[in-house]
Amino acid sequence: MDTLRDVLTRLEREGTGLGHFNVADVTLLKAVIAAANDTGLPVLVGASEGEREFFGVRQLGALVKSLREETGLSVFLNADHTHSLKKAVEAANAGFDSVGVDFSALPFDENVAQTKQVVQAIKAVNPAIIAEGEVGDIGTGSEIHESAQADFRNLTTPEQARQFVDATGIDILAPAVGNRHGMARSMVEGKAKKHLDLERIAQIKRAAGVSLTLHGGSGTEDEHFRKAIAAGINIIHINTELRVAWRRSLEESLARDSNEVVPYKILRPVVDAVKEVVISRLRLFHGEAVSRDAVEGVKA
């Protein structure tokens, strides 16, 4: 079976992106796996520290491993937004394929020092594990915000990206390029979309020379996803869109029959609703590749 590194290499060669979908319970995980099965496309399952605490780190690791072995699907597991050495090593020991090391709230030099320490520690557990580091401000909270978070003062620069990659030994960089965690209410209502700094993505890709992750993808304009992949983005994170679908479908399922108390009957429509969101994103990320020359404002 291909490794995560193999898949990333192949997808970049094809000009497509890997979908990363966060889960906090078995319902969400079943939806992501079902989408991977229906499309035959690889997926990266993500879980933040809070999601891992709720699910169980070892339990999630064991379940994803079991599903991968049973289905033969290219399903990988990422410890998303990990803020401490202890939590990173815990995920590495639980069999996670990658760890997202996030000290981006610290000054640059401290971010470098702590990220480097964690990268060395998790690779001592498993040399094949993929380490991601983060530079810049992409906000916090995969949730609904009353208004758009429009303060983009701390975007990643190409020189920062180059220095960070060289100093830390990370395999993947998560930059700030106009992406933000969560969705504004107007985005949930379909009245607004996020737009990315496509030229900055291309510049960072050339400077860093590693795979790039786009955090906070929920609510982004579809065409910007396509062009971001063409500019150098390799992994795209979707979380809030899944959570919105989860809540809406759960409310609808509960409202259908106030006397229904069988959990799997209530949750089946929820799995289907979230699965459809995942499928739509996977198909978008793996659709017809956009030529790099077609990316607005991006010069090779």
Describe it.
The strands form two sheets. The chain has an eight-stranded parallel barrel, surrounded by eleven helices. It is of the alpha/beta class. Helix 2 (26-39) crosses helix 12 (263-285) and helix 7 (158-168) runs parallel beside helix 9. The two termini are 34 Å apart. 50% of the residues lie in helices and 15% in strands.
Topology (SSEs and partners):
Elements: H1 4-14, E1 18-22, H2 26-39, E2 43-47, H3 49-55, H4 57-71, E3 75-82, H5 85-93, E4 98-101, H6 108-125, E5 130-135, E6 144-145, H7 158-168, E7 172-175, E8 183-184, H8 185-188, H9 198-208, E9 211-214, H10 222-231, E10 233-238, H11 240-256, H12 263-285
Parallel strand pairs: 1-2, 1-10, 2-3, 3-4, 4-5, 5-7, 6-8, 7-9, 9-10
Helix pairs in contact: 2-12, 5-6, 7-9, 9-10, 11-12
Give the SSE string: HEHEHHEHEHEEHEEHHEHEHH
Q: What is the alpha-carbon Rg in Å? A: 18 Å
Most strands sheet:
8 strands, parallel, barrel
Mean pLDDT: 89
Helix content: 40-55%
**Shape descriptor:** globular
Helix-and-strand structural type? alpha/beta
Uncertain runs are: 289-300
- Separation of the first and last Cα atoms: 34 Å
Number of strands: 10
Reading side by side through the largest sheet, how are the strands ordered?
1-2-3-4-5-7-9-10
Q: Count every helix, treating DSSP H or I runs of 4 or more residues as helices.
A: 12
**Strand-residue proportion:** 15-25%
